Amino acid sequence: MVKSPHEARHHLFRDSEQVLVGVLALLRPSAPDGCVQLIRQLPNDITEAEVVERRVDTVLEIEISGVRCIAAIESQSCHDDDKLFSWPAYIAQLRDRHQCPAFVLVITPDLKTAREARKPIVNEIPGLGIVQTTQLLALGPDNVPAVTTVDAALANVAGATVSFVVNSRTKEAAAILEALVQALDRVDPDEARGLVKIIRVVLPDTTTEAENTWRKHMASGQHLYMTDIIEAEARGEAKGKTEGRAEGQAKGRAEGRAEAILKVLDKRHVSLSKQGRERITTCTDEQHLDTWLDRALTVTSEDELFV
Fold first, then answer.
1. What angle do CA 156, 222, 228 make, to 5 degrees?
2. In this structure, are residues 267 and 215 in contact, taking their beta carbons and an 8 Å threshold?
3. Which residue, of 81, 156, 191, 212, has the fewest CB within 10 Å?
4. How far apart, in whole angstroms, are the C-alpha atoms of residue 9 and residue 56?
5. Phi, psi (5° rounding) for residue 306?
6. What's the rounded Cα separation, in Å, for the pair 280 and 275?
7. Are the C-beta atoms of residues 5 and 205 closer than 8 Å to each other?
8. Cα-Cα-Cα-Cα dihedral of 152, 156, 161, 167, to 10°?
9. SS3 for 173?
10. What pLDDT does residue 119 have?
11. Distance CA 121, CA 57 (A)
12. Burial 93-115 (b: 16+ CB within 10 A, else e)
């Protein structure tokens, strides 16, 4: 399960060649259809010796214009000088292991990080005339355009999702999300749900305006893929299935109901004391939780909720 914005940024590229195609369409609109294909996801552990452990966020085997390549996807929230030493090592190790070209793709919502990642990484030996240069591909707010119209988002929904993830901290974030939410209504429901999972995890790393846009659409009840998510959370189905045991399912359902109650009260601006919040989150009685969930839709105070 994707749990953080860092994971969301690189998990986007797993299992879907449409994201790779979408990114290429944003960066190179003139690129011919079908020139990028996802072959498979590879293990992200590229350790060669026990004394040095190296793990890439996501490693993909892809094909670009008929040429097999290895892409190492790295998610960065901010600049890290240590990466200037590890990224060239990733390329060398992946190129050696798979006997084909390899490259690092950095995805970041931070403008400075994107610009720094694009600078050539130079390894020069003084006096010997040896200079090795490593070049990366970096997706950042300065080269991934803001997709702010429904038509543009619908034409490239995977690219629009990347656009939101990368531009999540910019003033365009809310407009991108507005267009994307509406476009997702018109695509395959399973594809929409998969992309929404990524969007939701990125929300804590976006602007207040974008968060308000999301809340507005969640509250509207007009989007089928959002309704499914809310119902799944309320019943605790997602966690129950993951636990795979009756106890885990019951706990998951209780936690899902508790989260749903708190969300409803928060959207209706009904305040809770610390004790009241704890009473909801620690309750394991599904009947009580169902009662509170029903009351949360109409009550105006904590006293009315627990009457």
1. 80
2. yes
3. 81
4. 13
5. -100, 15
6. 9
7. yes
8. -50
9. helix
10. 95
11. 20
12. bbeeeeeeebbbbbbbbbeebbe
pLDDT in tens, the chain (307 residues): 555 677 767 777 765 667 777 777 777 766 666 666 666 667 665 544 333 345 788 888 888 888 999 989 998 888 888 899 999 999 999 999 999 999 999 999 999 999 999 999 999 988 888 999 999 999 999 999 999 999 999 988 888 999 999 999 999 999 999 999 899 888 887 788 788 888 888 888 888 999 888 888 877 777 766 766 666 655 665 555 555 555 666 777 788 888 888 888 888 888 888 888 888 888 888 888 888 888 888 888 888 888 7
Q: Point out which residues pair with 206 in neighbouring strands.
A: none
Residues 23, 73: Cα–Cα separation, whole Å: 13
Q: Judge whether 73 and 107 are in contact, CB under 8 Å.
A: yes
Question: What single-letter amino acid sits at 36?
Answer: V
Structure tokens at 17: 């060649």
C-alpha gyration radius of the chain? 23
Neighbours of 275 (CB within 10 A): 8
Burial, 158: exposed, middle or buried (Cβ in 10 Å; 0-12, 13-18, 19+)? buried
Torsion sign over Cα 114, 152, 209, 211: negative
Residues, the chain, total? 307
Q: How far does CA 46 lie from the centroid of its chain?
A: 23
Domain edges within the chain: 5-139, 188-305
Q: Which of 160, 180, 109 is nearest to 139 (CA)?
A: 109
Type of residue numbered 114: A
- Contacts of residue 223, defined as CB under 8 A and 6 or more positions apart, other chains included, come to 181, 184, 185, 217
227 vs 185: CA distance, rounded Å: 12
pLDDT recorded at residue 297: 84
b/e sequence 173-193, b meaning 16+ C-beta within 10 Å: bbbbbbbbbbbbbeeeeeebb
